[in-house]
Amino acid sequence: MSTSKWAGKKALFLGDSITEGVGTTKTYHAMLNEMIGFGDLKHYGISGTRIASQPDDGGSAMSVRYAGMDDDADLVVVFGGTNDFGHGTAPIGTTEDFTTGTFLGALNVLMTGLIEQYPAASICFLTPLHRDFYDGYVELNPETGLTLELFAEHLKERARYYALPVLDLYAMSGMQPKLQVIKDRYMPDGLHPNDAGHQLMAQRIAPFLETL
Hints:
InterPro entries: Ester_Hydrolysis_Enzymes, SGNH_hydro, SGNH_hydro_sf. GO terms for molecular function: hydrolase activity. Keywords: Hydrolase. By secondary structure, the chain is α/β, with parallel strands linked by helices. The protein has 9 helices and 5 strands, in the order E-H-H-E-H-E-H-H-E-H-E-H-H-H. Strands 2-1-3-4-5 form a 5-stranded parallel β-sheet. Helix 6 (148-161) links the parallel strand 4 (122-126) and strand 5 (166-167). Helix 5 (103-117) packs parallel to helix 6 (148-161).
């Protein structure tokens, strides 16, 4: 029997292809469910989606579609940002922005929106994982001139402002696919974790959730 504080609680997971489950047969949140025993778990993972919106994304940005999630939850976990870096064209913006069309503005909209939508829930964010060469991958986003690390740092800064907990998977996931042995073991395509990668993430995320 689970002794987790989240056993029997309702958890929502918002994210991109990793949350959707591309590259794995069992997602990190399904593995977390086996460890914790949520009363209800729903994931809102859509491949290719970003935190910031773009004119051609059909409203799929996380800063837009969070409003369509179930209106009740005990726990909300957001895992995004890699696609804002990988193929996003939205400018970074400023910390004063409240538009979904910039990365910082979209973080403001998403974070304040979640707090207002789930005032009694625990809300947390996960930073993006490291990436290797994949689908035209470059070291800098050509539109913003920023590295993936800086996207992660911007996410952490906005979360600090709103006092929202962050698990820095960029720093401590244990997965750096530029090392071939790690890529082969956990992230064969250089971006999407396989079953072993999702298990490693779940092992990192589970104790973090107990601190919320």
